Amino acid sequence: MTNTKRPGIFLVLILFALAPRPLKPDFQNKISAGLLGAMAEAQATGGKLHVWVYFRDKGERGGAGLQGALAEARQSLGIRCQWRRSKVRPATNLVDYEDLPLSPSYAEQVRTRVPKVRAVSRWLNALSVEAGPDEVRALAELDCVACLDVVRSFKRGENEVSLEPAEREASASSSPIYGAAYAQLNQINVLPLHRQGLSGRGVLVCLLDVGFRKSHEVFRLAHLVAEHDFVFNDNDVQRNSADPNDYSDSHGTATWSLLGGFKFGQMAGPAFGADIILGKTEDDRSETPIEEDFWAAGIEWAESLGAEVVSSSLGYTDWYAFKDMDGKTAVTTKAANRATSLGVVVVNAAGNERENSWGHIIAPADGLDVIAVGAVNSSNAIASFSSPGPTYDGRIKPEVCAQGVSDWIAQNRNDGSDYYTRGSGTSFATPLIAGVTALLLEAHRDWTPRQVRAALMNTAGNASSPNNDFGWGIVNAAAAANDSPASQIREIRIPRLFLLY
Fold first, then answer.
1. Neighbours of 480 (CB within 10 A)
2. 322 shares a domain with 220
């Protein structure tokens, strides 16, 4: 009788059984080196981490599903946001994949594994969360997670909020209208634009900062359109009265007053007639650092409301190296680049790091089209603290300068009463320039961020020989308003050979 057995089949089955199974992806490959280091520290101390969770995509969608989602995102854009985007994009392409919301399924998988979700970013396709080392490892094993990274931070130095003795100066210049703010406005030639009737009226400006004392008399005429506290997740950006350690309204009050405050005979900002959005993105309580996830959420929120200018006196360096200041790496820089690509003028402090161990500009001032602002004193000399350029890839920074030494600012005493004083930092030069951009946009409603940036740089005091201290120089607002929108910036890139690493 013929043998009908087929031993070849059994051999195949045996070989299949003995073959190595597909390996589960090494979850540690998803965790950045910086986060691994932070996890080791947290493991030893029992502390919690602030972590970026980046997703691989925004959920599976076929062609029709994707088009439907894009159409829904297009419908969700407000009128001001649509109008501003239309200056830089065709009407058929106002939204893209980055505008789509995160996958609800992915987000829920993360939410169930962490004690707290801190911020959500459509643009980055990510959540920031609070988690322990074990929870980070669990997140890394999710198929929907592409990678995890540490949330970067920055602790503001004392020279942000107080005067260095060598830089103290009391300006004698004042006026019956502007008070002691006259000198800082006159230096950047704002007054001719005010005489023409420009005040930023109709331009929507967002300030991202710590808390703001909205009750100060300098804001009595302000037109506040929207506000949000990303730290406490509510719609009140004032000091949290329930927290005895929260004194976080001094810095934001100062920057807002410099940009858009007005009290006859006492103070005025360049854009005192602008529409204002306030975002509290910094927790300034004792020993608490500024963190980038709230800033990224803040600028995304401001853009969705139609903001035309974002003024940010914040920056991020912890867990970054100088090589990351290349205009495309830091989280806040990516968010700032995205905002400028959607028609938002982003103005950011260069930083106060000239004399410390960092010694460079701070993110997101390194952004490609971000207007980084340096600080000078009333005698037009560069401030001793003002961060120099270049960026890691050799671009000159800052773009322009304004007074950032002994600026006249609005403040509140601990008893809540209003007063005015002086303060120093690139933080205080920045809102002066952001206010000027609002004046330019009021005069030229069709100008794009690149045109505003070019006008400021081409007409500044050092335009013929820009360098990494002053950039293109001290701004001339009146000249910038008369600049041709088609003019090109004289960009200069320094050979990598000459950069300090």
1. 26
2. yes
φ and ψ of 413, to 5 deg: -75, 165
- Domain membership of residue 342 as a residue range: 158-498
Least confident of 23-27, 72-76, 436-440: 23-27
Structure-token pair, residue 307: 């903001």
pLDDT of residue 500: 39
Which phi and psi (to 5°) does residue 99 adopt?
A: -80, -15
Residue ranges of the alpha helices (H) in 394-470? 426-443, 449-458
16 vs 10, 12, 20, 403, CA distance in Å? Answer: 10, 6, 8, 74
Which residues are known catalytic residues?
Answer: 209, 251, 427
Q: Which ranges in 319-366 belong to alpha helices (H)?
A: 331-341
Buried-exposed string 189-198: b where 16+ CB fall within 10 A, e elsewhere = bbbebbeeeb
> How long a stretch of residues is the chain?
501
Q: Is residue 365 part of a domain?
A: yes
Q: Would you place residue 6 in the very low, low, confident or very high pLDDT band (cuts 50, 70, 90)? A: very low
Closest by Cα among 430, 410, 200, 411 to 310: 430
- Backbone CA torsion sign across 352, 355, 360, 363: negative
What band does 26 get if pLDDT is binned at 50, 70 and 90?
low
Cβ atoms of residues 333 and 364 within 8 Å? yes
Helix (H, G, I), strand (E, B) or coil at 253: helix
Model pTM score? 0.89
Task: Output the pLDDT for position 314.
Answer: 76
Confidence at residue 32, expressed as pLDDT on a 0 to 100 scale:
95
Q: Is the pLDDT of residue 329 over 60?
A: yes
d(CA 368, CA 371): 9
Residue that finishes a domain, picked among 91, 121, 153: 153
- Residues 6+ away with beta carbon under 8 Å from 146: 30, 54, 55, 56
Residue 360 CA to residue 352 CA, distance in Å, equals 9
CA distance readout (Å), 359 to 101, 321, 322, 388, 393 = 38, 11, 9, 7, 16
If one compares 501 and 205, the residue with the highest pLDDT of the two is: 205
Q: How far apart are CA 108 and CA 113, in angstroms?
A: 9
DSSP-derived secondary structure letter, 27: G
**Residue 395 sits in a domain of what CATH number?**
3.40.50.200
Same domain? For 88 and 225 the reply is no
Q: 54, 331 in Cβ contact below 8 A?
A: no
Beta bridge partners of 50: 130
